[in-house]
Amino acid sequence: MRRREQDRLARMDVDYQRRKELAEFTMRREERMKAAEERTVKKRLKRQKKKQRKREKKTEPNGSGEEHRKEESLDDEANSDDCN
């Protein structure tokens, strides 16, 4: 009976360690995912700003039709955001 109890305690310790490691892994994984998402958002905003500046540069020299092109670019941004 003593050996049986020791085996049970050993299994409990192993189970506890496994659960502890899994919890730590899950926590680290969530932190990494959150950091990756933050980087992704930051880079997406940077790309969008770059595209917007490029569009503005492109439309500046042509004084006519500027409003029409800006509307198209806004529609393009809305469509590209929906796709992502």
Features:
mainly alpha; PRKR-interacting protein 1; single chain; 84 residues; protein kinase binding; double-stranded RNA binding; protein kinase inhibitor activity; Prkrip1
Give the uncertain stretches in residue-range form.
none
- Please provide the ordered H/E string of secondary-structure elements: HH
Largest sheet: none
Helix content: over 70%
Query: Which class best fits the helix and strand makeup?
Result: mainly alpha
The number of E-state strands comes to 0
Percent of sequence in beta strands? under 5%
Tally of DSSP helical segments: 2
Query: Which shape, going by the Cα principal axes?
Result: rod-shaped
Distance between the termini: 62 Å
The average pLDDT value, as a whole number, equals 84
Task: Give a description of the structure.
This protein is mainly α. It is 90% helix and 0% strand. It contains two helices and no strands. Residues 41-56 have a biased composition (Basic residues). InterPro entries: Prkrip1. This is PRKR-interacting protein 1. GO terms for molecular function: double-stranded RNA binding; protein kinase binding; protein kinase inhibitor activity.
Show the helix and strand layout.
Elements: H1 2-59, H2 66-83
Helix pairs in contact: 1-2
Short synopsis of the structure:
The protein is mostly helical and 84 residues long. The protein is 90% helix and 0% strand.
